[in-house]
Specification:
Layout (H helix, E strand, L loop, with lengths): L2 E7 L5 H12 L3 E5 L7 H10 L10 H25 L2 E5 L2 H11 L7 H13 L7 E6 L2 H13 L12 H17 L5 E5 L6 H8 L1
């Protein structure tokens, strides 16, 4: 059975770039997944509509949006387990901690608040999603992440959603992520400086 390694961080932190470099460094059989699965799962597509103000009041409802994120992962659980059975490592761009961090931040709660516990109950205990073996927090200053996401939008790569454009929300999300990493929520966490070039070989060795 392969190891489930999750990459977390703010919008614009560089998670896809990190996943690409780690894939090359880890060697062996490495599979990559990303959530939400836009264009693949109906729940993910509803998330996209909510993030762009096209779901009426549901887009503003913290628990409602969190359930849509969770249902996307639940629908992917069988494929995820198959990937783990067939590969040495499965790298996932965003997972359960994203739901916890963004929802808690929207409610102005911290990493030990009620919402984070609720997400764990729904996604891990009730939906029985695979628990990560390790999680990477790609930490960058909020201002840097905002510049990157704005640049990505300006080049037509992807339109910024309402959460990405909310600097205050992103700052609170960063604080929740720091708390989750400090607490070792669900699994051991590794904090990676997203503004410098890390020791890729050492990081890959720690994750094997």
């Amino acid at each position: 059975m392969g190891r489930l390694i999750v990459i977390e961080g703010l919008d614009g932190a560089g998670k896809r770039t990190l996943a690409g470099k780690l894939t090359a460094e880890l060697g062996g059989r490495v599979a990559r997944l990303a959530f939400p699965r836009y264009g693949v799962d109906v729940h993910a597509d509803l998330v996209h509509e909510g993030l762009h103000g096209r779901l009426g009041g549901l887009g503003d409802e913290v628990y409602g949006m969190a359930v849509l994120y969770a249902l996307d992962r639940r629908a992917a659980a069988e494929d995820l387990r198959a990937c783990l059975a067939e590969n040495d490592v499965v790298l996932v761009d965003r997972y359960v901690a994203s739901n916890a961090a963004f929802g808690a931040a929207r409610l102005h709660q911290d990493a030990r608040g009620e919402f984070v516990g609720w997400v764990r109950e729904i996604e891990i205990e009730r939906f029985d999603l695979p628990v990560p073996d390790a999680q990477l927090l790609l930490r960058v200053p909020v201002e840097v992440a905002a510049e990157r996401s704005a640049h990505r939008a300006s080049t037509g790569d992807r339109e910024r959603d309402t959460w990405e454009a909310d600097g205050s929300l992103q700052a609170r999300v960063a604080a929740v992520y720091d708390g989750l990493a400090e607490d070792g929520w669900l699994s051991p966490w590794y904090v990676v400086d997203g503004t410098s070039d890390p020791d890729w070989t050492g990081l890959a060795e720690a994750l094997r």
